[in-house]
Design a protein that fits this description.
Elements: E1 2-6, H1 16-28, E2 33-36, H2 61-71, E3 76-79, E4 82-83, H3 89-102, E5 107-112, H4 117-123, H5 130-146, E6 152-153, E7 158-159, E8 176-179, H6 183-192, E9 195-201, H7 203-217, E10 230-235, H8 241-249, E11 254-255, H9 270-287
Parallel strand pairs: 1-2, 1-11, 2-3, 3-5, 4-5, 5-8, 8-9, 9-10, 10-11
Antiparallel strand pairs: 6-7
Helix pairs in contact: 1-9, 2-3, 3-5, 5-6, 6-7
Length: 289
């Protein structure tokens, strides 16, 4: 089982020194990956399904991954997840290729469609188009990362006669992990994803999601260039050796736990940051990383 850490850019960690401290502690403790979260903006006042209070600090995913590329050496750097329909895919392809190059091939790209309409309104992207944009944007990224002379003709993006170099270090490109629980997200994962990501799930929830992905695979064809699907879960509840074994038994390949209280409002973040480092060290010891 691969063990990552979720939330490296959230709450009390959306701070240079705190992020450095935790990232380096996780790398020293042999964590496999560091995962970000993403909301470009929060709706104010908070409205469901917005998950956090509007003034929650949340460092930009691309900026965070670029920063960590220069601050770490071995740990993989992952977006969990980047809201792809809110991004220009041509610009994003350049940014992410740069992160993969500058990190020495450590990027994992987790993407999703988003769920808060007010966030899309602020960015100027129609909420109803988020699924179609996500599917097309994935293909734009793949085209720019793999074609010698990239050409694309789509509903939202078209180009020819261009180059975007350097290409990513990883071949054919960094892994693309797709988040989401809808039937459409499951189909998108089967047809376009190297992996699937689920947030705050117990073993039963993970098993149900993996079953749903299997059912989707019976309805849509998985391209030959995509290998076996890798399942990543941010688990709910305590993570110990027994829990890891149970997740592995249902087909999970990577667990990226989130430390407690990471995003709670506080006037004194230092004790929580200390707790995060202690969580990293205790998890590594418990799981013998």
């Amino acid at each position: 089982m691969k063990i990552g850490l979720y939330g490296i850019n959230l709450g009390v960690l959306a701070d240079r020194e705190a992020m450095l401290r935790v990232a380096r502690a996780a790398e020293a403790a042999n964590f496999e990956s560091l995962w970000t979260g993403e909301h470009v903006v929060f709706v104010d006042p908070q409205q469901p399904p917005s998950p956090l209070v509007p003034d929650t600090p949340l460092a930009d995913t691309v900026a965070t991954l670029a920063f960590l590329a220069g601050a770490t050496e071995r740990v993989r750097l992952a977006s969990g997840i980047l809201l792809l329909p809110q991004r220009n895919p041509v610009v994003l392809a350049k940014e992410l290729a740069g992160i993969d190059v500058l990190s020495g091939g450590r990027l994992i790209l987790g993407v999703g469609v988003g769920s808060v309409e007010g966030e899309f309104d602020a960015i100027g992207v129609p909420f109803r188009e988020r699924g179609a944009r996500t599917s097309e944007h994935i293909e734009v990224l793949r085209t720019l990362w793999t074609q010698e002379k990239p050409v694309f003709e789509g509903r939202f993006t078209s180009f020819s006669g261009i180059q975007s170099r350097p290409l990513p270090v990883q071949q054919p490109h960094p892994p693309i992990v797709i988040g989401g629980y809808s039937d459409a997200a499951h189909r998108r994962t089967i047809t376009q994803g190297d992996g699937w990501y689920g947030f705050m799930m117990d073993v039963e929830g993970a098993a149900a999601a993996i079953q749903a992905l299997g059912e989707a695979a019976e309805k849509v064809e998985r391209p030959d260039y995509l290998g076996p699907l890798e399942i990543t879960i941010t688990p709910r509840g305590r993570l110990d050796r027994e829990a890891v074994e149970r997740f592995a038994e249902v087909g999970v390949h990577r667990l990226a736990p989130m430390p407690r209280h990471l995003m709670l409002p506080t006037d004194d973040p230092d004790p929580i940051r200390d707790d995060v480092v202690a969580f990293v060290e205790a998890t590594a010891e418990s799981l013998e990383l």
